[in-house]
Amino acid sequence: MRNWKRYCLAWILVLLAGVSAASAQVGNSLAFQRAQHLRRGINLSMWYAQSGDYSDQRIASFTNAEDFKLIKSLGFDHVRLSINPEPLIAEQASSALRPEAIARLDKSVDEIQAAGLAVVLDIHPEYNWKDQLKQGDDPVARFYAFWMVFAGHYSTTDPDKIFFEILNEPVMDDIYRWQGIQARTVMFIRRVAPKHTIIATAAQWGNIDGLLAGEPVRDENVIYSFHEYQPMWFTHQGANWSTQSFVSLHGVPYPSTAENVNAMKFEEADERTRLFLERYGLERWDAKRLGAEVAAVAEWAQRRGVPLYCGEFGVYKNFSDPQMRATWISDVRTALESKKIGWAMWDYQTSFGLVTKKDGVTTVDPAVVAALGLKR
């Protein structure tokens, strides 16, 4: 009996050693190595996406080579470039790209790389375009066809500097449908771009809860992305494009306590909004609470041996207290870095912006720079 116990113990030690070796091998995989190029980033929004004007004039003036130099000088190593696929596609039923549109994008990507920055090519459609993926096979087939052409176009670029992000914030709640679509998209990309690292995300708007409910695809060269805007009552106060309850909110505090939330004036808030705000105070959102959110997703990734990337986090600045905004940004950034998760703040120059542009002058927000752990 004693020899049998020793035999079992020896096999357990061998198995544990194998697991440790496998974990070390996964940690040194190509995806983990490429993730080191995505440590500190900024989102370039309202430029090639989220705009009704994709003319040469606006593209050339809205964001340019001077911006890329500034971004690099602040200590960022990459940008996440939002790209609406619709202006790139020649016809709805076709997967061909408009020559003038893709040439314009190529020029911008080249200029970003020339500044010493890596580029995440983030496919960032309007809501309706994404919503179609829930509704039938034809939109999904067109999505696959687009990625075959788009990834094929960029397949000759440096895979250490160019990353393919499948889809920004999938809107579908059906986790299994999205996992199937994403897995097949990876397969189609691999047919034309076998060396590039792909950034995958979860259903349910790409948030932490969605990622925790899913599983990785069968491809080792993939980084998994999530977005962090919790608590939305603080980060989206005053925003008019999301839940109607946010519109009337001004001066929501962070960190939250029952006392500082109860001190707010609720005159314009309905009963539902008041209840959510009371919950926000009682939940005591602070650095510890945000750290717990990040720790949960970090554990998910560690158990599966995959690298993580936080592609968006930020605070709508029009109605938030500037110092509280900086504190939240610092708390999220610190939590991410404590788990060795790379990040890209939302965003460079619009309503969540790091900089303000006026009369040809670009002004950097020093509080946000400090919150991001960078130096001006």
TrEMBL record:
Residues 1-24 form the signal peptide. It holds the Pfam family Cellulase. The keyword Signal applies. It comes from the Bacteria. One of its GO terms (molecular function) is beta-glucosidase activity. Residues 58-349 form the Glycoside hydrolase family domain. Keywords: Glycosidase, Hydrolase, Signal. GO terms for biological process: glucan catabolic process. GO terms for cellular component: cell surface; extracellular region. PROSITE patterns: GLYCOSYL_HYDROL_F5. The keyword Hydrolase applies. PANTHER family: ENDOGLUCANASE, GLUCAN ENDO-1,6-BETA-GLUCOSIDASE B. Belongs to the glycosyl hydrolase 5 (cellulase A) family. This is Aryl-phospho-beta-D-glucosidase BglC, GH1 family. It comes from Granulicella rosea.
